[in-house]
Amino acid sequence: MLEIPGPDGQTRTVRLSSPDKVMWPAGEHGPAITKRDLADYVIAVGDRLVGDALADRPVTLQRFRDGIEGGEFYSKNPPKGAPEWARTTMCTYPSGRSHPQLVVDETATAVWCVQMSTITWHPWPVRTGDNDDPDEVRIDLDPQPGRGFADVVEAAQGLREVMTGIGLTPFVKTSGNRGVHVYARIAPTHEFLDVRHGVIGIARELERRMPDLVTTAWWKEERGERIFVDYNQANRDRTIASAWSPRPLPGAPVSTPVAWDELDGLDPSTLTLRSVPERAASTDPWAGMDEAVGDVAAAVALWDEDVEPDDVERVVALERELLRDEIRADATELARLLHPRWAEIGASGRLLDRDEVVAGLPPTGAELEVVRAERIGDDTILLLWRAVGARGASLRSSLWIRESGRWRQLFHQGTVEDQGAVDA
After folding, report:
1. What's the whole-model pTM score?
2. 3-class SS shares of the chain: helix, strand, coil, % to 5
């Protein structure tokens, strides 16, 4: 049993079974790391792990019952036997299903997660009071083969300039592998799809500034030796390993917050479960993050600059690039990935005309104008349309798929803006 300080002077008792179970085997990186070692690490860095990354957020647990060399699985539903002090929050997934997820508000809850063989925590970019509007921008800089960490640092500094230039305050951490993650707090004023647009806008602006170093290409074979500016985590139910989380890799590297002026010359392989507690006790590179809240609207504006209604061909190209990987999936999986709600419209197996499209949309109070419809697969159609509402005109799109002879519509790249009436 472990005794762990809780809030208001309370003491929490957490059972830790099989403390000698090996989570990371011995090797060139050092001796084996046990389940008890992992629990001790979480206790040592708990204030940072919880305060910087997990508190008041839905969290998915990446679990390894037999250590990193065994099978892994992700727990979205809270594991059975959660302590009475641990709370949950209800989340809606792209499939349309809703169920509770664990919230890790204190160190004792994180240690209980270790008892459940958790190695890495994956928090959503939302707070429990509003699970639909992100309060964080997260961007993953993923180096392709042929690029080293120094190249990632150069890209990260360029990304910092882009984000600072649009009023965001970026903070950085190592990924726990070869890349870095850049975060910025934002006011929770926009839904997931709008924030995704903003992240893509930032990524494309960085690509324009550093075309030989970074890429937003969806296909790996098109990235070459550049650094992929990964915007794919800016989706509902898509997460990144939290700050201070160990990673299931040899040597137990930790995704570690660092100061911007530390990046040059940093060797991320030195930031491990054994070394990071001392760092966590002596430095606070993310101090002030919660107070540095920006507005994502300027990032969304970068996206909008790429999708002016008079540049439809470019819009089609951008959307196809974004979608083409998912189009390989079957209809059910595509729905799960892209949008929680299906709207069934028509059964004729043909492209519906404007009146039928409008009839199938929820009431919005907006005037809709179909701009273009393009078939991008035997059973997939991309429809571009303009919505003119109280806040002006915006170009939006819907993805249509045909299943068992019936057309079904998925809202993908945005919603009608005037009253948020199209659920996302």
Report:
1. 0.75
2. 30, 30, 45
